[in-house]
Sequence to fold (343 residues):
Amino acid sequence: MSKFNAGKASILALTAVLAVAAFLLGKSLTSVSATNHYEAGTWSSCVAKPDHTCGNGAGTQSATCHLTDGQSHDGCTSNGQTVTRDCDISCPKPEVSITKSILCGSGVRTFSGTADYHGDTTTRLTVTFNPPGSGNTTTEVDSQSEPTSWSFDKSVTTGSEYKIEAKVYDKSDPDSGDLTDSDSWTFTQVACPVVDVCQNLDGDQATLPDGMQVDEKGFCSCRDGYHEVNPEGLRVVFDGLPSFTCVADEPTPDPDVCKNIDGVQTGVPDGMHLDAAGINCVNFTPAGPPENPSNPPQGQILGTSTMAGTGSFAENLYLAIMTLGGIITTVGVKNYRKASKLA
Fold:
């Protein structure tokens, strides 16, 4: 009996020990879990905030938190948490450039360029021109008004070397030495290449002469509606002259003499004549000139006409008809009287 009781006591003691151990182990695990630490992973690219372009704190970036062996960082309190922070965006400095192209040959040329200040309001732009010769450098542009483009005219000579320098500062005083950008261009002015459009003509024709056309071989000739005239001013009908000009052909006269009649009339139709303007064809009319109220018509002898002396063909024809009629009438009357006597 005593052995049985002793065994029960041992089991109870062992159970108690296990319970205490389990309690202590659970408490220990809880303590370990409460002391976990987290930190942010890789930060995303900096993105500008609304109404911001550049500057300190002008952007934001984010990251995802994860478990770490060290202390917690970046505001992380749990695994997988997303955290954000401000970031800086660098502002671009003012820039300047020179347009490096120019016409060939000597003469006045325009030089130009552009500038971009990227919102900087305390800038200064200077552009200098350095022709041949010591001490000839001139300042052509000196501005604090932030022009986005600039230009100036200078005379250049073929074969000479020139240099242009453009500088922009982010402060209004260039002496501060705060140069943000510059551009320079050194060039030698070149002569223009010889251009001869018409290979078959003496001299060099830089452009196509008036009235001419040119083929793929550079042979110039008069185009349709023009003819060749030699240096003496005479018209020629063949090509091959080393020097000639092209003169417009005379317009072909209109063969239609009656503009008011359909078709083409090469002559005045029978029974018609041209009007006073010589444009329209009209019919002859037997009517005389209009009456003049201040000079009433007088009686006239048979066979005569008030149209005599006017000189027109129609009037002369009318006069001849009237005269012939008068003669026929007179002869008829005489013959009638003779016949009456014989009866």
Observations:
- Residues 2-34 form the longest helix (33 residues).
- The first strand starts at residue 37 and ends at 40.
- The radius of gyration is 57 Å.
- The CA atoms of residues 39 and 73 lie 5 Å apart.
